[in-house]
Amino acid sequence: MTDALTRRAVAAGLLFLTGGAAEPAPRRVVSIGACLDPILLALADPGQIAALSHFARDPLTSTVAEQARGFAITHESAEEVVALDPDLVLASKRSGLYARTALKARGLRVEEFDVPSSVEASLEQVRTIAALVGQPDRGEALVARIEAALVAAAPKPGEPRLRALVYQSGGLAAGPATLLGEMLERCGFENGAARYGLRKWGSVSLERVLADPPQVLLAGARAEGAPSWADRVIDHPALESLRPRTFRGSFSQKLIYCGGPVLIETARVLAKARRRAEVWARQRPLRD
Question: Which of 115, 107, 71 minimizes the C-alpha distance to 89?
């Protein structure tokens, strides 16, 4: 059975269980998950969105900060959410356990989501949220846009795969069993984090990077002002010593965790970095 047929069968089953009556779309939806905000904004009618999480307006971590200014926000407390009188709350399983528990105790409908660890899981999350907000066609359209972006970012057959490390504040890196790890592979890189023993998310010390540098270092940028201790890793002068044999590109903190529409920008950024690194590789010998 194809994926499309499977989805139609599931939909038919839901209609049967509800006596053939489609559930009305929610009128007031609140998101209390940083990675759920971009999906909700992409799928719901503006009038359906009662509030987003406060992370949505953070220009350092959100891809929708500008768009989010037109909507109310909460700091994910149960009191704030209850006051908004939502008929649907989209919540991250990684945020506010007590708030989620309190909201359920008040009888609110709370749908909880994990951070997806694969592209397929992210696409299914988009479809699920689209169905919840009564916009399944928009969900399929967004899935099609994400899939098209991945096709556009994929390397051509036979193109070399350079070993890349996404290196963020505090030495944070994404192993192969993460959404970003899969995106690296799909966009034409070999994930260098595996060389340091990472499978999922973890830290790679500056010493290990210097001792066994990647061919491509995709580093985050520190926040404005005085650097924090965590930022000192990606800003460390010792990393400059790698430049003759390691290409350094930028990779925003906004893109490291979230899926959904964020994957479109992630694919674009990674494809651009690969093209620039390939030009660099033809001009300078990169480390094996």
Answer: 107
According to CATH, the superfamily of the domain at 25-150 is Nitrogenase molybdenum iron protein domain (3.40.50.1980)
Mean pLDDT of all residues in 107-135: 97
pLDDT in tens, 30-48: 999 999 999 999 999 999 9
Specify which residues 163 forms β-bridges with.
190
Residue 214's closest CA among 164, 172, 179?
164
CATH number of the domain at 158-283, out of 3.40.50.1980, 3.40.50.300, 3.40.980.10, 2.60.120.10? Answer: 3.40.50.1980
Alpha-carbon gap, residue 198 to 24, rounded angstroms: 45
Domain segments of the chain: what residues? Answer: 25-150, 158-283
Distance of CA 80 to the CA centre of its chain: 26
Q: Is the pLDDT of residue 260 over 50?
A: yes
Q: Which amino acid is residue 20, in one-letter code?
A: G
pTM of the model: 0.87
Whether 25-150 and 158-283 share one fold: the answer is: yes
pLDDT category of residue 243 using cuts at 50, 70 and 90: confident
Greatest alpha-carbon pair distance for the chain in Å reads: 68
Q: How confident is the model at residue 4 (pLDDT cuts 50, 70, 90)?
A: very low
Instruction: Supply the mean pLDDT for the chain.
Output: 88
* Alpha helices, H only, the chain: 3-17, 37-43, 65-68, 78-83, 97-105, 119-132, 136-153, 179-186, 206-211, 231-234, 262-283
What the block records as the tokens of 177 is 């069993």
The whole-angstrom separation of Cα 136 and Cα 148 is: 18
